[in-house]
C-alpha cells in the first residue's frame, strides 16, 4: 500500500505545470480526485506520489497507473486531509512561518491540490468578523503569478502588517515616542487616525513633551495627519487654559515660516483663531464666577460694590468694568484666556521698550519703574507658564529685577511672588494687600502662653538689610539706630501675623521695641561676609552678577521677609527670564533633545549630569526662559574673582583633599562629560565663557543654544572643535594624568554608547521639527544625515573609544577655540 501511485487527471496536471515549482505548497501538495478523493494511508505515500508526479511532469498519465487507481482500495477522505495538513504544517515550520490554527467554526472540507477550501465569507463574517485576515500562501500560489493575484497578495501583505501594527499599538511597549514616530512616518490614513485616537490614552505630561512636534506636523503636513491630531488638541484646549495658550503661541510661531498669503488661510492659523476666540469652552461645566482678574488703580471705597466682571486688560488706558459697558456685557467665558494673554503681553512690551535705551543703568531704572506700575494690577488670575505647579501671581519685587548681558537686546530677569493653589482656573484670586499700609511682625511678645520668654526674644534678634533701593544699604549718617523685627522662631498655631498701618509704626502703644546700633549691624554683616568664600561686587555694566551670585535660599528668605504676602503658607518665589527679539524655537528644540538624553542616561545608569531648563515660545521673536538658580557664568567668575578656574574652586570649596572640593570636582566631571557629548551631537557653537555657567555645587552647564546643527555665528563655521575643553577645565579635573580626567573620558564613552542605543528617539525630535521650518539650524539638506552619522552606529566599542580619545585631544589643542575666546573679549569684553 505504501508504494501505491495516485493517478492525476490531465486537467490537474496542466494546472500544476503552470504553477510555481519552488513554492512551499507545490512541495507538499497531493492531488485528490473530486469524485472519489483517493489518498494514501500516510504522509509518506502522499509525498511519494507527488515526487513521482514531479519526475514525469512532461508526460501524460499512463494507462497502467489509471488502472491501478481503479483497482486499489480507497482511503477515507478525512484521513487524507489530516495527512496533508500535517505536511503543510511541517513545511510552514521549516520556512519559519507561524502555523495556522485549526478552525472550529467550520468543519473541514475536501482538499484540491493540497489547498483548504476556505471561503472569503468565512473571514468576513461569523467568528472572524472584524479581525485582520491571515496570510494564506496556499491560495496565493494556486493563482497565476501575474495580474490580479499579485495585487491580491499585496493587499494581504498590507493587512498582515496592519494586524502586527495593531498588536504593537495595543501593547505595553507602545509609548508616546513611538506614537509620534508612526504618526509622522506612516502614509496610511487609517493608521494615522488610530494613533490620533491613541493619544487620548497617554498622560497629559507625556504628550506635552512632544507638543511642538504634534503642532508642527499639524501646520506643515498633509490633511490626514492634521485630521488625526486635531480632535486631541481641541479636547485638551477645552480642558485647560494653559494648554490652550501654549498651543496658540506655538501655532503662531510655526505658521510664521509660511508665506504671508498662505499663512492667513492655513490650518494652523484657523485653529489658533478658534482657540483665542474662546469658543473652546469646557463641555458639561457650569458657568463659573471668576474672582477679579486684575485690579486697576486704587482699591475701592468702603461700601462700594465689587464689579461682577472686572477689567482684565493690562494695557495702557484701560478702565474698570463698571465704567466700560462693553466689557460688562461680554459673557463670562471671555475672560478665560484674556488675563494671562495681557499679562504676558505686558512683560514682552517692557522688554521691547528697554531695547531702545543705550546703557544698562538706564535699562535697569526703566525696568524697575515699569514693574512697579505692573504691581498695581496684581494679584490677578495670571501665572508663570514655566512653573511646575498651579499658582496665582500676587507681586513682582520690582527692585530685584536685573537686565542681563546682551549687546543688542535687553533680556531681563525678574522674581515673582506667587501663592500656590489647587487650580489657577477655579481657585479664587487672593485679595490684594497694599504695601504702604501694612507691615509684618511677629506677635509672640503679645502671646505669653506660647512659651517664648522675653530673654529668648532678646537673644534672637537679627538684622535684615534693606535691598529695596539702589543706594548703599547702610549708612551711619542716615540710619543711626534701626528698629528691627523679631524673626520667626517657632511655628506655634498661636503665633499670628499682626497688621499695622504706617502710623502705628511710631505709636507709643507698641511694646518694648528692640534697638540695635548701626555699628553692631556693620559688625554682624562683616562676620557674615567673612564666612562667604567669594563675593561679587556691584558692576554697572553687569548688574546681574550680584543677583545671580546670591544663594537662592537666602534670596527667598530675604524677599519673603519684605513681602506683604510672605506670611501666607502658600507663598512661593519664582524667577523667569523675559526675552524679546530672539526666536526661541531652537532653544525649545535643544531643551527637548537634552531632556531626552537625560532620560536615556538615567535609564542606562550612566552618571552624567545635565540641567535642561524650560522654554516658553510666545512668538517667532519672543519667549520666556526658566533661569538656572545658584549659577553664574564663567565670564562673571573670572571678572569678579580675578582667579583661574581651579583657584576659584579652591576658594569656594576648600583644599584639594577636602570632601567638599572632591565632591565639587566630581560634579564638574559628570557635567563636563555630558555637555561635551551634547555639544558634539548637536554641534553647539558660540561657546564663549558668557554662555557657560558654573553652579554652587561645581556643575558646569551650557546655555544659549541659538547656534546648533547646521548654523554657526555669521555662518562662518569658525569653531571647528567637537566641543570646548580648555586647559582650565583639565586643571580642575586634576591634569592630563589625573584619575578624574581618565574618568571624564570613560564617562564620555559610556554616554555615547548609551545615546546611540536610543538614537531614533533623539533623531525623530529633530527630524519632525525640520518639516516646513526655516530655522537656521536646518540650513542645507544634510542636517539629519550628519546628525545620524555622529552617533557612529557602525563603530565597535573599541572604535568608539579611539574616537573619544581623538575628540578630547583635538578639543584641548584647538586653536579656533582660543581665537574665538579672544575675539569675544575684544568685541564684547567677555573674559
From TrEMBL:
<dbReference type="InterPro" id="IPR000403">
    <property type="entry name" value="PI3/4_kinase_cat_dom"/>
</dbReference>
<keyword id="KW-0547">Nucleotide-binding</keyword>
<dbReference type="GO" id="GO:0046854">
    <property type="term" value="P:phosphatidylinositol phosphate biosynthetic process"/>
</dbReference>
<keyword id="KW-0472">Membrane</keyword>
<dbReference type="InterPro" id="IPR036940">
    <property type="entry name" value="PI3/4_kinase_cat_sf"/>
</dbReference>
<keyword id="KW-0418">Kinase</keyword>
<dbReference type="Pfam" id="PF00454">
    <property type="entry name" value="PI3_PI4_kinase"/>
</dbReference>
<protein>
    <recommendedName>
        <fullName>Phosphatidylinositol 4-kinase beta</fullName>
        <ecNumber>2.7.1.67</ecNumber>
    </recommendedName>
</protein>
<dbReference type="GO" id="GO:0048015">
    <property type="term" value="P:phosphatidylinositol-mediated signaling"/>
</dbReference>
<keyword id="KW-1000">Mitochondrion outer membrane</keyword>
<comment type="similarity">
    <text>Belongs to the PI3/PI4-kinase family. Type III PI4K subfamily.</text>
</comment>
<feature type="region of interest" description="Disordered">
    <location>
        <begin position="282"/>
        <end position="335"/>
    </location>
</feature>
<dbReference type="Pfam" id="PF21245">
    <property type="entry name" value="PI4KB-PIK1_PIK"/>
</dbReference>
<dbReference type="InterPro" id="IPR018936">
    <property type="entry name" value="PI3/4_kinase_CS"/>
</dbReference>
<dbReference type="InterPro" id="IPR057754">
    <property type="entry name" value="PI4-kinase_beta/PIK1_cat"/>
</dbReference>
<keyword id="KW-0443">Lipid metabolism</keyword>
<feature type="domain" description="PIK helical">
    <location>
        <begin position="74"/>
        <end position="277"/>
    </location>
</feature>
<keyword id="KW-0256">Endoplasmic reticulum</keyword>
<dbReference type="GO" id="GO:0004430">
    <property type="term" value="F:1-phosphatidylinositol 4-kinase activity"/>
</dbReference>
<dbReference type="GO" id="GO:0005524">
    <property type="term" value="F:ATP binding"/>
</dbReference>
<feature type="domain" description="PI3K/PI4K catalytic">
    <location>
        <begin position="550"/>
        <end position="816"/>
    </location>
</feature>
<dbReference type="InterPro" id="IPR015433">
    <property type="entry name" value="PI3/4_kinase"/>
</dbReference>
<dbReference type="GO" id="GO:0005741">
    <property type="term" value="C:mitochondrial outer membrane"/>
</dbReference>
<keyword id="KW-0496">Mitochondrion</keyword>
<dbReference type="InterPro" id="IPR049160">
    <property type="entry name" value="PI4KB-PIK1_PIK"/>
</dbReference>
<keyword id="KW-0067">ATP-binding</keyword>
<dbReference type="InterPro" id="IPR011009">
    <property type="entry name" value="Kinase-like_dom_sf"/>
</dbReference>
<keyword id="KW-0808">Transferase</keyword>
<dbReference type="GO" id="GO:0030867">
    <property type="term" value="C:rough endoplasmic reticulum membrane"/>
</dbReference>
<feature type="region of interest" description="Disordered">
    <location>
        <begin position="93"/>
        <end position="156"/>
    </location>
</feature>
<feature type="region of interest" description="Disordered">
    <location>
        <begin position="1"/>
        <end position="73"/>
    </location>
</feature>
<feature type="compositionally biased region" description="Low complexity">
    <location>
        <begin position="19"/>
        <end position="71"/>
    </location>
</feature>
<dbReference type="InterPro" id="IPR001263">
    <property type="entry name" value="PI3K_accessory_dom"/>
</dbReference>
Amino acid at each position: 500500500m505504501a508504494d501505491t501511485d495516485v493517478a492525476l487527471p490531465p486537467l490537474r496536471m496542466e494546472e500544476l505545470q503552470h504553477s510555481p515549482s519552488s513554492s512551499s505548497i507545490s512541495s507538499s501538495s497531493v492531488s485528490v480526485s473530486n469524485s472519489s478523493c483517493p489518498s494514501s494511508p500516510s504522509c509518506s505515500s502522499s509525498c511519494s506520489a507527488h515526487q513521482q508526479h514531479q519526475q514525469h511532469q512532461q508526460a501524460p498519465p499512463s494507462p497502467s497507473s489509471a488502472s491501478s487507481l481503479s483497482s486499489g482500495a480507497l482511503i477515507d477522505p478525512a484521513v487524507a486531509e489530516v495527512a496533508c495538513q500535517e505536511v503543510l504544517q511541517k513545511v510552514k515550520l521549516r520556512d519559519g512561518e507561524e502555523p495556522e490554527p485549526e478552525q472550529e467554526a467550520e468543519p473541514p472540507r475536501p482538499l484540491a491540490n493540497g489547498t483548504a477550501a476556505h471561503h472569503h465569507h468565512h473571514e468576513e463574517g461569523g467568528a472572524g468578523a472584524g479581525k485582520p485576515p491571515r496570510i494564506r500562501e496556499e491560495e496565493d500560489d494556486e493563482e497565476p503569478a501575474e495580474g490580479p493575484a499579485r495585487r491580491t497578495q499585496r493587499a494581504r501583505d498590507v493587512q498582515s502588517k496592519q494586524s502586527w501594527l495593531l498588536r504593537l499599538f495595543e501593547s505595553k511597549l507602545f509609548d508616546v515616542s513611538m506614537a509620534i514616530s508612526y504618526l509622522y512616518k506612516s502614509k496610511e490614513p487609517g493608521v494615522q487616525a488610530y494613533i490620533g485616537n491613541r493619544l487620548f490614552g497617554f498622560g497629559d505630561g507625556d504628550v506635552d513633551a512632544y507638543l511642538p512636534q504634534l503642532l508642527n506636523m499639524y501646520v506643515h503636513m498633509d490633511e490626514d495627519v492634521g485630521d488625526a491630531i486635531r480632535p486631541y488638541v481641541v479636547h485638551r484646549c477645552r480642558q485647560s487654559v494653559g494648554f490652550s495658550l501654549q498651543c496658540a503661541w506655538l501655532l503662531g510661531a510655526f505658521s510664521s515660516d509660511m508665506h504671508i498669503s498662505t499663512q492667513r488661510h492655513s490650518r494652523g492659523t484657523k485653529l489658533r483663531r478658534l482657540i483665542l476666540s474662546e469658543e473652546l469652552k469646557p463641555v458639561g461645566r457650569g458657568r463659573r464666577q471668576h474672582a477679579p482678574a486684575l485690579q486697576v488703580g486704587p482699591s475701592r471705597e468702603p461700601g462700594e460694590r465689587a464689579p461682577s466682571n472686572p477689567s482684565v486688560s493690562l494695557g495702557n488706558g484701560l478702565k474698570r468694568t463698571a465704567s466700560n459697558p462693553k466689557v460688562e456685557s461680554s459673557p463670562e467665558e471671555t475672560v478665560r484666556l484674556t488675563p494671562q494673554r495681557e499679562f504676558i503681553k505686558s512683560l514682552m512690551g517692557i522688554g521691547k521698550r528697554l531695547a531702545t535705551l543705550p546703557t544698562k543703568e538706564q535699562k535697569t531704572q526703566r525696568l524697575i519703574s515699569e514693574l512697579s506700575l505692573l504691581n498695581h494690577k496684581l494679584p490677578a488670575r495670571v501665572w508663570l507658564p514655566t512653573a511646575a505647579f498651579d499658582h496665582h501671581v500676587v507681586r513682582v519685587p520690582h527692585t530685584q529685577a536685573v537686565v542681563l548681558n546682551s549687546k543688542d537686546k535687553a533680556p531681563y530677569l525678574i522674581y515673582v511672588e506667587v501663592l500656590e493653589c489647587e487650580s489657577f482656573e477655579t481657585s479664587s484670586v487672593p485679595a490684594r494687600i497694599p504695601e504702604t499700609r501694612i507691615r509684618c511682625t511677629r506677635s509672640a511678645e503679645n502671646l505669653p502662653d506660647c512659651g517664648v520668654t522675653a530673654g529668648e526674644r532678646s537673644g534672637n534678634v537679627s538684622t535684615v538689610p534693606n535691598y529695596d533701593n539702589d543706594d548703599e544699604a547702610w549708612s551711619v549718617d542716615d540710619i543711626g539706630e534701626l528698629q528691627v523685627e523679631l524673626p520667626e522662631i517657632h511655628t506655634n498655631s498661636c503665633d499670628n501675623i499682626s497688621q499695622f498701618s504706617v502710623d502705628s509704626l511710631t505709636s507709643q502703644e507698641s511694646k518694648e521695641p528692640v534697638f540695635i546700633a548701626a555699628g553692631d549691624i556693620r559688625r554682624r554683616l562683616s562676620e557674615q561676609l567673612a564666612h562667604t568664600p567669594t563675593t561679587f561686587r556691584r558692576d554697572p555694566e553687569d548688574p546681574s552678577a550680584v543677583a545671580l551670585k546670591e544663594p537662592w535660599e537666602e534670596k527667598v528668605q530675604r524677599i519673603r521677609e519684605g513681602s506683604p504676602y510672605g506670611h501666607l503658607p502658600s507663598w512661593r518665589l519664582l524667577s523667569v527670564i523675559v526675552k524679546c527679539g530672539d526666536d526661541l524655537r531652537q532653544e525649545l528644540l535643544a531643551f527637548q533633545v537634552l531632556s531626552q538624553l537625560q532620560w536615556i542616561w538615567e535609564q542606562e545608569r550612566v552618571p552624567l549630569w545635565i540641567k535642561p531648563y524650560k522654554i516658553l515660545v510666545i512668538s517667532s521673536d519672543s519667549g520666556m526662559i526658566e533661569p538656572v538658580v545658584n549659577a553664574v557664568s564663567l565670564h562673571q567668575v573670572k571678572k569678579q574673582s580675578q582667579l583661574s578656574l581651579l583657584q576659584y574652586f579652591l576658594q569656594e570649596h576648600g583644599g584639594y583633599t577636602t570632601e567638599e572640593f572632591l565632591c565639587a570636582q566630581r560634579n564638574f566631571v559628570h557635567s563636563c562629560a555630558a555637555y561635551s557629548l551634547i555639544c558634539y551631537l548637536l554641534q553647539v557653537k558660540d561657546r564663549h565663557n558668557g554662555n557657560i555657567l558654573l553652579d554652587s555645587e561645581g556643575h558646569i552647564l551650557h546655555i544659549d543654544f541659538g547656534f546648533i546643527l547646521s548654523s554657526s555665528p555669521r555662518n562662518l563655521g569658525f569653531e571647528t572643535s567637537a566641543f570646548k575643553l580648555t586647559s582650565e577645565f583639565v586643571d580642575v579635573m586634576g591634569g592630563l594624568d589625573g584619575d578624574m580626567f581618565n574618568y571624564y573620558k570613560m564617562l564620555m564613552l559610556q554616554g555615547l554608547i548609551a545615546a546611540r542605543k536610543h538614537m531614533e528617539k533623539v533623531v525623530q525630535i529633530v527630524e519632525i521639527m525640520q518639516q516646513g521650518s526655516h530655522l537656521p539650524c536646518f540650513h542645507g539638506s544634510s542636517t539629519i544625515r550628519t546628525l545620524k552619522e555622529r552617533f557612529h552606529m557602525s563603530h565597535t566599542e573599541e572604535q568608539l573609544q579611539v574616537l573619544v580619545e581623538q575628540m578630547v585631544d583635538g578639543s584641548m589643542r584647538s586653536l579656533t577655540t582660543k581665537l574665538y575666546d579672544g575675539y569675544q573679549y575684544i568685541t564684547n569684553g567677555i573674559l
